[in-house]
Amino acid sequence: MASLLPKDGVLLDITGQAPSPSKDFHQFVVTTKHTIWRTWRITLRNDAKRLNPSESTDPLEDFQYDDRLQFEVGRVFGARVKDYAVMLSQGLVDYIMRMPKPLLLYMCSFLDLEDVSRLSGTCKLFYEICNAEALWEQIYERHCDTVTEEMKSLAEELGWKQMFFTNKLQLQVKLRRHQQRITSPDSGTRAFLTEDEK
Known about the structure:
14% strand, alpha+beta
């Protein structure tokens, strides 16, 4: 599992501006060993040149007991980031989020359709994976008896997910139209226009 951790040791790196009325800019970094809090003061005062950026580095384990830093992280980046950093300081690393995408796609291909739908709502990473064409190609091939070259060609145009949720009758019509377009592009276009105009 340790091999899934980034080589530079950075588990979280987030930057942003503090909420109003403050204009200060902050960076919060969590590594496998330390937390780093950097602040750049933004002010219109004449003595602003004397306000140098500040940085504090502490052992990672100390973050779970550091109420002041937790408050600052929550104030600037929100409660979710603060809670996530506390989990990291307790050694609760989300290894599944750090797995290579091809492996996550392979794992998701064994899920039931309802589970794929639920998983896509958990976070951005799984939303991206659960809507990936590579995943829906595997799901389509698993649920369908045969996948012809014409179907693969149509999937490049429509997308595997849309093909999966298209009923068989509509799919046959789309396949026929797609084959007409490939064999004779001009006649296929005319056929589409005449059928749509009916």
